[in-house]
Structure formats: structure tokens, C-alpha cells
């Protein structure tokens, strides 16, 4: 969520929690519709994952992002009347291997580990710098097959924290010439 600290300070902890509940609820339908799985809620973040083939099929991972944006826009009146604002969000996407397993003795939890999690977070952290809502890694950009509905542009090579080599990062947005038509949804 963009500006989450400021929003939390302005709303107070109880109202902020109520807004988060609404926010996550309103975003969840898109996750279901586009075959994602909510791995974890981390504060104001929703971490979503796909098996690679499921995320690529019909561009589910990209379509999910824009469906989530539309879901919030459709609820603008509710958010503005109850909380005085419409929350916005940004995302970073990457693909790669993940190891899943159970940890803990007092409190057991299934966790994912792997470079893909940290890299996705680092990419998302660049959204403000590049004034982009959705950034993806070079690895993912190479295997996406985006229709003309979307515009994809390189924001350049970036050295992400913890990595020894630079990675080209790409911004994805609704193509300007298609913005008045909305997003064309692929059949699933």
C-alpha cells in the first residue's frame, strides 16, 4: 500500500486496521479470479504467488494486478466516505525457484524461501523511484506474452540490494491508446 505509514498515522490504529480488513477483502477476489494464492499478509502487504505456468497463463499475474486496481476504484465511494481516502498500491514481480517447508517448534508455519522473494520485494521498492505502479524483472519480462493492451518499458539496469549483478527492470502499464477502452480480459 502506498503511503501506509502516513495513512496509519492519520487514521489511528483502530480505523487503519478496519481499512486494512476492507482493503484485503476487496483485493482477494482478483487473486481468486486469476489463479493466485495469497502466501502471506505482511503488515499492509499482500504477498501473492503462482506456479509459473499459472501466472503466465492468460497473463494471470499481470491481469490480477490490474483487476485489483479496478476493484479498489469501484469501491472509491466506500473508502472515501469511511476513511477519507482511496488506498493505492504498487507491486514488484519476479519469477524463480522457491523452497517451501515447515519451520518452528512452538509455532509451526509453512514458509517460502529463495531469492525470488527478496528480489520481488527489492523490485517493488523501486516503484516510487521510477514513478511506476508495476515493475517486473527482466527474467519475467522475457517470458511474458503481453497483448497490445499493455505498454512495457525498460527503466534500466539496476543493482538490487544483496545481488552482485545488475538486473534490467521493466514497468508495465495500460497502453495509452487502449486506456479509454479498459483492459481486455483473456478468456480463462
Description of the molecule:
- The protein has 188 residues and is an alpha+beta fold.
- The chain folds into two domains: 89 residues, Alpha-Beta Plaits, CATH 3.30.70; 87 residues, Alpha-Beta Plaits, CATH 3.30.70.
- Helix content is 39%, strand content 24%.
- The chain has seven helices and eight strands, in the order ααββαααβββαβαββ.
- The strands form three sheets. It has a four-stranded mixed beta sheet. Strands 1-2 form a two-stranded antiparallel sheet.
- Helix 1 crosses helix 2 and helix 2 crosses helix 4.
- The C terminus is likely disordered.
- This is Adenylate/guanylate cyclase domain-containing protein.
- Pfam families: Guanylate_cyc.
- One of its GO terms (biological process) is intracellular signal transduction.
**C-alpha termini separation:** 28 Å
Q: How many discrete domains?
A: 2
Q: What would CATH call the architecture of the largest domain?
A: 2-Layer Sandwich
Largest sheet: 4 strands, mixed
- The helicity comes to 25-40%
The overall average pLDDT, rounded, is: 92
CATH topology call of the largest domain = Alpha-Beta Plaits
Order of strands across the widest beta sheet? 3-6-8-7
H/E topology pattern: HHEEHHHEEEHEHEE
> Can you tell me the CATH class of the largest domain?
Alpha Beta
The best one-word shape is globular
Total of DSSP H or I helical runs spanning 4+ residues: 7
Query: Which stretches of 5+ consecutive residues score pLDDT under 50?
Result: 179-188
Radius of gyration: 17 Å
Strand percentage:
15-25%
Structural class determined from secondary elements: alpha+beta
Number of strands: 8
